[in-house]
């Protein structure tokens, strides 16, 4: 808690700095066939993720990114837009939907919208933020959507040593 600047090079934003309705959109990122295959071979070795030739016979007509891979991409892209939030940790995802397969050559953007903010009921120096995320193609077609619940440090926590994490707000 001693760093004054976030990985984005800006001051950390604490719970008090967040606003319901705040939206952010990431820069674009294009997904390649090589990264789809590499990720899948390591973490989700389904044939339609790992074998370009065999995948041509699938319902997708080509290799597609594993849903877990798309979520890993979301995580990287979210850090580019929300990496200045002083998160304690994530505590859950709700309403997760894999709505459209991500294919090689697809260019993605991530958007976030803060849905709700609730101060700690336990008196700990943090609050709960619920954010809706969308991973979408550049034309707006949604690929993955979900709501993420996260604990966020308060300004008070920046000066206190009692910052142990637990899922309890």
Automatic annotation (TrEMBL):
SUPFAM superfamilies, sorted: Thioesterase/thiol ester dehydrase-isomerase (SSF54637)
All copies of the MaoC-like domain together span 24-116
Note the superkingdom of the native organism. Bacteria
- Extract the Pfam families matched here: MaoC_dehydratas
InterPro entries referenced in this protein's UniProt entry, alphabetically: HotDog_dom_sf, MaoC-like_dom, MCH/BMMD
Q: List each coiled-coil range.
A: none
The name on file for this protein is Acyl dehydratase
State the species of origin: Novosphingobium sediminis
